[in-house]
From TrEMBL:
Species, as recorded: Oleiharenicola lentus
Record-annotated MobA-like NTP transferase domain positions: 10-171
Gene3D superfamilies from the UniProt entry: Spore Coat Polysaccharide Biosynthesis Protein SpsA, Chain A
The protein's name in its UniProt record: Nucleotidyltransferase family protein
GO molecular function: nucleotidyltransferase activity
Record's keyword terms, sorted: Transferase
Matches recorded under InterPro entries: MobA-like_NTP_Trfase (IPR025877), Nucleotide-diphossugar_trans (IPR029044)
Length: 201
């Protein structure tokens, strides 16, 4: 019997939230902090391990994840940019599970992520014919992204602000796509206020 598909996940939560003016990872969202809300969403998918990369305000963010089956990994060089945190997360995931066949990269500021979206990414990848599967909103390829193992070496040498988006700009024919109807991300106070209005009961 063939081994089941092994897919891990890296959740990036290391940024300083400069545009928000306060740690957006800790914003109240549906009765939880934003980072815990998104972490609980991704944990519904068949992914293991789940690595959460923290950096700025790590001492405040780590307690918000207490009790969840995630590996919290500190990026001491988070200020270097997104690529630095992604590299740290990929390294941590592969240290925990060296035989991973795929790795999803997700962002901690996407509260509207549908619970079954990650399963759709995995399903599309397993159909074959693609080296990665990106979420698609309109004409844009966006996170979360499932990278096949062939991408791991490249992800492990990322530097500065280069990250998954730089790879997605290549838009190669072997990139699979899954529609993401809600690509809300919370970068500014206005984004947050708009999200609260749209999701108020």
């Amino acid at each position: 019997m063939a081994d089941p598909f092994q897919c891990g996940l890296v959740l990036l939560a290391a940024g300083a939230s400069k545009r928000m003016g306060r740690p957006k990872q800790l914003l109240p969202v549906q009765g939880l902090t934003l980072v815990r809300h998104v972490a609980e969403l991704v944990l519904r998918a068949p992914v293991s391990p789940v690595v959460v990369v923290v950096g700025a305000d790590a001492q405040k963010i780590e307690p918000a994840l207490a009790g969840l089956p995630v590996q919290i990994t500190l990026n001491p060089n988070w200020s270097e940019g997104l690529g630095s945190s992604l590299r740290v997360g990929v390294d941590a995931a592969l240290e925990l599970a060296p035989k991973l066949q795929g790795l999803i990269v997700a962002l901690a500021d996407q509260p509207g992520l549908p619970p079954n979206h990650l399963e759709k990414l995995i399903g599309r990848f397993r159909q074959g014919g693609c080296s990665l599967v990106a979420s698609q909103t309109g004409l844009n390829l966006v996170p979360p992204v499932l990278f096949g193992a062939e991408w791991f070496p490249r992800l492990r040498i990322l530097t500065g602000d280069s990250g998954a988006r730089d790879i997605l700009r290549e838009n190669r024919p072997d990139f699979g796509r899954v529609i993401l109807p809600d690509n809300t991300d919370l970068d500014t106070h206005e984004d947050y206020e708009r999200y609260l209005k749209e999701h108020s009961s």
